[in-house]
Amino acid sequence: MLLKRPTWVEFYRDMAFCVSMRSKDPNLQVGCVIVHPESLKILSTGYNGFPPGTENTSKNWEKRTKDDLVVHAETNAVLLTGQTDLEGSIAFVTMYPCKECAKMLIAKGIRKVYYLSFKDKYEESSALFEAANVWVTEISFRHFRPLRRGEDATLKDFEDGLIQRVRFILERVNLTGEPTGVYKALRENTEELRSEDLLSPWPRELKDKILLDKWTHYFLFLALIASTRALKNHQGAILIDSKTLKISAISYNGYPRGVNNDEDDDSMQMSALENAICLRLSEGRDFIAFSTHFPSLHEVKNLAQARVKRLYFIWPKTPDGENINEKALQIMKDAGMEVVPMDVPDLEKLEKAIRDTTGGLKRAEEGNKVPFSAWPSNLTDYDLQPKKPNRL
């Protein structure tokens, strides 16, 4: 079985959905991903949550209080960009933006919005988008351009498709037996790091369980999703700022910009980690990397040079099938880089998390006056392609 490679639009649709799974909202998790209009590089991500200092208690998440406290996914994504130029950028959201989020997106320069689900009360945003000439609607809700949700267009179909892609990636690597040799020693020496979570700059007690309750699990899951875009030897990687935990890059293994995918020359490909290093959005800080695979010796040198202070990985082999290299471990140790092997994510738990998140979107649609069957079926100008560099 081969994994059907998602289009760029489908890839960022999936990514926005998976970003939402870190939200603590017990009823509706919403995610937003903002990408560059030409390179399609991810510029920012966000999900709905409380501002720093507001506790994630059940009382605060009740309907009568949460609307006054919560910061929506789109606003979070905009605010987390800092001074990054978003002029002309594209936003992928799991829920059509409310009026206040629409203002933020427009003010920051977003010019195209793709969305997965819709609530009637947010239809008032359409006038704002139309006035700002944002590509999302042609005058009325019936002309909005939603993201495709599968062959039968239902959220159930989208849900099953995403689970199928996650299952494919997790099941394609068969690790049998107990860890041995260098890998076993590495696991034993990092037992404490493997069980600890990253410290958020805004620590707060989680009063209720959330879908992905550790940052380490969350970022590894996003790396797993990123790998679905690769043509083969699926590898995904995430680079985050060690101080703020903001995502600096999300990538997968593939050819450099401008090199055609039909070259079929593995030596011309870049690994997911190398791509992430090249795409990083900030300088001057130390980074934490998350990878589906252990890096090759060549990648390790670049990670050390790029000031990666810690690397989490799932599978103890490179995408090419090479075992953990002791020389690579020594280079990382000399550079002061901690290397943390993690367990393969639990497929059943991920499936439940995906279905729970989709359930929130389904409930949000139940009261809509316009059923999904009335949404547009013939979509135009749907797919995206990165702009290739000019050749000399």
From TrEMBL:
The protein in question is named dCMP deaminase
Q: Which residues form a coiled coil?
A: none
One Pfam entry name = dCMP_cyt_deam_1
Where on the tree of life does the source sit, at the highest rank? Eukaryota
Q: What are the GO cellular component annotations?
A: cytoplasm
Q: What's an example Gene Ontology biological process for this entry? A: nucleotide biosynthetic process
Ranges for domain CMP/dCMP-type deaminase = 7-135
Family, per the entry?
Belongs to the cytidine and deoxycytidylate deaminase family.
Kindly give the InterPro entries that the UniProt entry links to this protein: APOBEC/CMP_deaminase_Zn-bd (IPR016192), CMP_dCMP_dom (IPR002125), Cytidine_deaminase-like (IPR016193), dCMP_deaminase-rel (IPR015517), Deoxycytidylate_deaminase_dom (IPR035105)
Q: Which cofactors are required for activity?
A: Zn(2+)
Q: Which UniProt keywords apply?
A: Hydrolase, Metal-binding, Nucleotide biosynthesis, Zinc
Q: Which GO terms describe its molecular function?
A: dCMP deaminase activity; zinc ion binding
Q: What is its EC number?
A: 3.5.4.12
Native organism: Stylophora pistillata (Smooth cauliflower coral)
